[in-house]
């Protein structure tokens, strides 16, 4: 559609917004702003997490460093998110037994285990000896 001046509506819209790109809108007097942020995950204690990792027998399948083993996958040094870890440990799919609240009392224990797994160093590459 063209206006009588010969400028298209798209051109008018483009011209009217050119000066606004990259600018922050001015605050409206009396208005309040509220930004919803996700709840912060409680901090984990890696030292306690290492103790719990051994106490609950996680190392039996996942290895002492979470490096993976015969029965369990590698879960360190980049474990799944805390939320995913808690959900999976409470209701796993596959061979892993569920660690319900009866056995593993609090989610804080899992948060500490997550901190322990996150703190593990990455595996160093091994050189292949020449044949």
Q: If you had to describe this structure to a student in words, what would you say it looks like?
A:
The protein has 131 residues and is mainly α. The chain has a domain at 46-119: Cytochrome c-like domain (Cytochrome Bc1 Complex, Chain D, domain 2). The protein contains five helices and no strands. The model is unreliable at 1-5 and 7-25 (pLDDT under 50).
Provide a concise account of the structure shown.
By secondary structure, the chain is mostly helical.
Q: How is this fold's topology laid out?
A:
Layout: H1 9-17, H2 46-55, H3 58-62, H4 82-90, H5 107-119
Helix pairs in contact: 2-5
Helical amount: 25-40%
The CATH topology of one domain is Cytochrome Bc1 Complex, Chain D, domain 2
Number of helices: 5
CATH top level of one domain is Mainly Alpha
Q: State the CATH superfamily name of one domain.
A: Cytochrome c-like domain
The CA-CA distance between the termini, in Å, is: 76 Å
Overall form: globular
* Structural Rg: 27 Å
Biggest sheet character: none
Number of strands: 0
Could you spell the SSE succession in H and E letters? HHHHH
- Mean pLDDT over all positions: 78
List low-confidence stretches: 1-5, 7-25
Strand content: under 5%
Structural class: mainly alpha
Second CATH tier, the architecture of one domain: Orthogonal Bundle
